Every structure is written in C-alpha cells, then in structure tokens.
Amino acid sequence: MFFFYVLAARHLGVERYGTLSFGFAYATMFSALTDLGLGAVAAREIARNQRSVDELVSNAMAMKLVIAFLVMILIGVSVNILGYPQENRTIVYICSLFVLETAFVAYFCNIFQGFQRMEFTALIRVIQGLILLTGVLILSRFPPVSAHYAWLYAGAGLVATVTGLVILMRKFIPISLSFNFKKWRELLREGLPIGVSVIFVLFYYWNGSTLLAKLAGDKAVGVYNAAFRLVAGLNFLGISFSSALYPVFSSTFLTDTARLKQLLTRALRWIIVMLLPVAILGMILAEQLIIFIYGTNYQSAGLVLRILVWWAFVTGFTSVFSNYFMATQRARWMTVQTASALVINVLFNLILIRRLGPTGTAIAIVAAEFTSGFFYLVIWQILDRYRAGLSLVGKSLLRVVISLFPAGAAAAVVARVHILLGLSTGLCIYIILLFVFREIRGADLEIFKSFFNRLR
After folding, report:
1. Distance (Å, rounded) from C-alpha 434 to C-alpha 396?
2. Distance of CA 172 to the CA centre of its chain
3. Which of 128, 218, 297, 309 is positioned for an S-S bond with 160, CB 3.0–4.6 A?
4. What does the alpha-carbon distance between residue 224 and residue 92 come to, in Å, rounded to a whole number?
C-alpha cells in the first residue's frame, strides 16, 4: 500500500495526486457509517465466547449490506450538493465502491481478530497490496489519469472482499443473512458508542483533505497527502500492535484485572520504543525523505512531514487506549475523546488552512491528537489509579529520549552520504542503547520468542 501511494504520487504529479487523494478522503470519511461498531462488538464477543458466532455474524452481515448501499447514495448526493468540480466528483463515485467493499473486508478482519487468527487479515492485506502494486506499475506506463487509479483501488478491494469471504466460509463459519430486527437493535445498542467514535475518528482523519480541496485547491491536497500517507504507512506499527492487543484485553478483563493493568503499561512502553524514533528521526530527516521518496516536485511537503511525525507518535498511544477502553466496556470515554478531537481539528483547520495551507492542516491534526493523548492519560489514572504504571511509562520515555540523542545526531551526519544509510545508522545505535539502558529486557524478549514459536 505504501509503494502504491508513492508510485501514484510520482506518476500523477502533485495536482492530479491531490484530486485522487481528495476522492479517497471524502469516501473514507463516510465508511465508518457502514460499521456502527458492529466489528468491534464481534471481535470482543468472539474473544469471550465463540459459541454464539453464527447468529451474531449473520445479522451483522445483513445490516452492513443494507447500510452500505444507503451510504453509497449519501456519498454521491452530498458531493454534488457541496459543488466540487466534475473530476473530483467522478473520483468520489468510483471510491464509493470501495466503501461497500471495505464494509465487509473490515468486518471479516474483526472476526479473525476475535479468533486471534490475524494471519488471515495479513493475507488479505498482502493480496490487496500486491494487486495495487502490480496495477500501479502497469498504469505508470500510460498517461497519468486519476480515475484509473481509483478504479484500480476499487478492483483490489473487490478481490480482498472475495478472499475474505472464502476464508471465513472455509475456515470458520458458513455465511448467511439474517433479518432478526430484535437482534439488530441489540447489536446497535452494543456497538453504537464504539461506532460513533469510529465515525468521529474517520472524519477527524480526513476532513483536512476535503477542506484543503475546497479552500486551497488540489495541489495543496497533494502536498499534504504525500506527507500524511508516508506517516500513516510508518504508523502501521502502532495501529497493528494495539489492534492485536484488543482480544487479549477483552478476555483478560474478565479474568485478571491486575494482569490487565500490567499489559496496558507494557503496551504503552512499547509504543514509546517503536514510535518515538519515528518522530525524532522523521523530524530530523523530513525534507531529505520527501525528496528521496517522491522527488523534488514534493519538496514543500518536507515541513508538513516534520509536523506530522508527532501525530504518528501520539496516535500510537491513543490507539492503545481506545482498544483498552473498548475491551473494558468503557467506550463512552472513547466517544468523548474522538468527538473532542474532531471539534478541535475542524476549528483549527478552518482557522489555519487559509493562512498556512497544508502546513495548517498538519498543525491542526497534531494539536487534536496531543489533546486526545493527554485526555486518555488523565482518564486512565482517574479510573484505574495505577500510579506505578504511569511511573514505568515515564521512566521508559526518559530512557528512550536519552538513547535517541546520539542516534539522531549520527543519523543526521551519515544522511549527508545517503538518506537510507543515515536512517540505518541511527536505528542501529538506538537499538544498541536500548539494551545498554535496559529498556529492552528479558521478559520483553520472551514475548517475541513465544510469538515466533507460535508462528512456526
């Protein structure tokens, strides 16, 4: 997926890539309406009790089919009412097909998550990514047309949907549609607090691109998304890590609350270890990375990237906390957090975009994410009163920061020879210092050892 966006950006150029990014962003904002928390409920309930899967899935699938078609109509009508140019509207129409496909692919992945068989999620994503990569290599031989990339995206989504359906039917449960409206109401009552939060999150992620298109033009959208897609690609570590913890949090919540607190603390420590170097090294080498990956036409995205890397860091924290509060049946706090983040983000976008363009959009989303991270930390301590956990997280942060000072300095010097050599040098020094300062311990290595043993 990362290479798809990079090669598409290089081939289309800043403005056409901005048009394509606008279509993705606009359709994706509405995609949460097809879920309404049904996926998270499925993952949680399957992790706790696998005997009621058939009724749960058959009713949720029927609901999603009905809702997805209604959302596609809403997307088409709304983009016309808002008066976007014809080319932008065409891209949105094509991307709305991907919304229908995502409704089912995402739900299949939630089911795999509940069974703790995320290798099937990985398989679907790999197949989808390979189709996109093959397609973009073919399209790069022809004249650049944004709509062709949108059709490629929709086609890859269709293959991913069929693959997920086949895996689900062959490995887990038979698929059927059930219209038990009493069960529908029950599922909505359970899932809606989570679903509303996901709606807020997606509008929060993508309103910046749609407002940029309206207020600053497609070129500004292209600049912003060049940096944003790069950060989102790197941020998969934190999101994947926290998603894998969700069924573990869910099952542990019912059996061992003391262990649950320890799991959360360890997860927060590892988010710092994984994502703080992304922020520091990304900030130091931002412009060199942009030019190396996208070319000189995107040089102005360097400043945007330098800001957005801090969004990637804090998103790891908020993602872990979101999964934790969902698993412990306190999703209302997630709803409050996401609603607040959306309001802050939109207000900052409306104020800053006209003055700063894509840089203003980057500042807006970082400000909202830092507010969310602080909110979650405060609520965690109020509800759980786990001061020892907060102290451990603080000590990890200090050790990681100390390790990153020499690593960042070395990366900046060596990057003058080549950017990849600089990154490699910085990361190697950082990892060595983590062992020196005992931030990586024997218990942590045992986790990875058991993980690889399970893979074998």
Report:
1. 10
2. 26
3. 128
4. 19
The average pLDDT across 7-20 equals 87
CA trace torsion 189, 191, 196, 199 (10° rounding): -140
Look at residues 236, 356, 358, 355 and name the one whose alpha carbon lies nearest to residue 290: 358
Report how far residue 65's alpha carbon sits from residue 10's, in angstroms, rounded to the nearest whole number: 36
- For residues 230 and 312, is the Cβ–Cβ distance under 8 A? no
Which pLDDT tens digit goes with each residue over 385-436? 777 777 888 888 888 889 888 998 998 899 888 888 988 899 899 988 888 8
Cα–Cα distance, 306 to 415 (Å, whole number): 16
Six-digit token pair at 434?
């983590």
CB 121 within 8 A of CB 112: yes
Beta carbons of 59 and 180 less than 8 angstroms apart: yes
DSSP reduced 3-state for 299: coil
Give the separation between CA 123 and CA 129, rounded to whole angstroms.
10
**Which residue is listed with tokens 């009724």?**
55
Q: How far apart are CA 324 and CA 253, in angstroms?
A: 9
Q: Look up residue 315 and give its amino acid.
A: T
Both tokens of 234, joined, read: 């790197």
Per the structure block, which two tokens stand in for 325? 């509060």
Q: Are 209 and 224 in contact (CB under 8 A)?
A: yes
Q: How many C-beta neighbours within 10 Å does residue 181 have?
A: 11
Using CA atoms, how far apart are residues 256 and 252, in angstroms rounded to an integer? 5
Q: At what angle do helices 38-48 and 236-255 cross, to 10 degrees?
A: 50
Q: How far apart are CA 19 and CA 154, in angstroms?
A: 16
Cα R_g (the chain), whole angstroms = 22
Helix, strand, or coil here: 94? helix
Q: What is the pLDDT of residues 333-384, one digit of tens each?
A: 877 888 888 889 889 989 998 888 889 999 999 999 999 888 888 888 888 7
Give pLDDT tens digits for 216-233.
Answer: 888 888 888 888 888 876
pTM attached to this predicted model: 0.76
Report how far residue 334's alpha carbon sits from residue 352's, in angstroms, rounded to the nearest whole number: 26
Query: Cα separation of 377 and 253, whole Å?
Result: 19
367 Cβ contact partners less than 8 Å away, ≥ 6 residues apart = 344, 345, 348
Residue extents of the structural domains in the chain? 1-192
d(CA 272, CA 270) in angstroms, rounded, equals 5
Model confidence over 191-205: pLDDT tens digits? Answer: 776 777 777 777 777
**Closest to 35 measured CA to CA, from 131, 147, 111, 145:** 111
Q: How many Cβ atoms sit within 10 Å of the Cβ of residue 348? A: 19
